[in-house]
Input
Amino acid sequence: MKQQTRFSHLLKSLIVLGDYLVLNATFLLVFLLFKSYLREDVISEFHSLLVALNICYIPGLLIFKIAIHSRVIYADKIVQNIFYVILLHFVLFTTALTIFKIQEVSRLFTISLYSLLFISLAAWRLSLRFCIKLYRKKGFNFKLVVIIGAGQNGNALYQEMMDDPGYGFRILGFFEDNPVNIPSESKLLGSTDDIEDFIRDNEVDEVYCTLPESAEKVIVRALNFCENNMIRFHIVPEFRRYVKKQMELNVLGNMPVLSLRNEPLQNPLNRFSKRTFDVISSLLFISTIFPIIYIIVATGIKITSRGPVFFKQRRTGKRGHEFYCYKFRTMRINEEADLKQAIENDPRITRFGDFLRKSSIDELPQLFNVLKGDMSIVGPRPHMLKHTKQYNELIDKYMLRHLVKPGITGWAQVTGFRGETKDVSQMEERVIRDVWYLENWSFFLDIKIIYITIINIFRGEKNAY
Output
């Protein structure tokens, strides 16, 4: 345990040291590049700028905790943390410039500094995170773990820990009174009566209890023993088998209340940032590139088939509200448009329409839906009213995906579930990913989805028809 603690402190020190090296190196590089464009009074205040730069970074480190050494943390969370650190630094640093009366630093200098700083810090921390996981995969910086209970809960936990060696868990074995389901590659350490003796005689960092609530006496005894011996004790609730999502623990008076899901977009600030991004992005595209695309696409549609340029269809939106979803028309006029989804080699699709679908250009008019507020750029794809009714009857918790606005692109689409759903299981997988998105939303997750979408457009997708 002492080695684990020392390693964590060493890593935190290394991260802070690396951050400051990146901060100062980036500032020096940008300062040298823009030196000829800066006023003489600004250049003469170089040392004051450097001092302010370093002091203003401290609050970000204190408020937005360093967590890249944690056993489980994802890349988008690391990048999001860096963004908040940089944003706070920007506010504090520009305020410091005003206090020092150094107000003539060019906007281009500031934009260049923070853009490069964000990229550099993200690259540094993500690289270090990769090295930490690689280090743990090699068998170092591990945590010695025992699991109480070898039922479905215990076996599922064991599998999760073993699936990614980068977590750095070394499982010593199980304690189980009815040892019939012990994984073949693990071992039985004894019954639940042997827990205390084993922990006294062996080095154990953490204990994970997967027993049902009915084993309350065993759980309480093990919990008290671990806390009295400074060993971290974790409880994996039995209902995780049928509630597979991130939950949130709140307190009502003295009563703990477990909410079934954490929804980041319930936070008004998160909704505001998402909506602001939607409005600015859609306005910029509609007012610049869209008119050119419209002329080309409209000409192609009119030449290849009769009918309007745009196709609108009633779809299901947030909280089940219906709205008209806009697309460039890719099919010949047909009576099945609102009843039957497109299939591979669909005879209703024109040749030009096939190109629009494969390139995703047909979806661009939905930017008007985004501007109106019916849709977001990123979110679960909206379905036809018929399909909403059909799948709601077939798939449990299907309507949960409608707790957020539908999107032009989404997590399900960039993870292989775009286009036609040939059976219910495919739609179930799509719904699972849509619900995961609403529980794990972050601004940088949206950026990641947009990035993957653009890559997929140029690379081509087999399900884009």
Remarks:
- The chain has a mean pLDDT of 85.
- The chain has three domains: 2-137, 143-242, 268-459.
- The first strand starts at residue 143 and ends at 148.
- DSSP finds 17 helices and eleven strands in the chain.
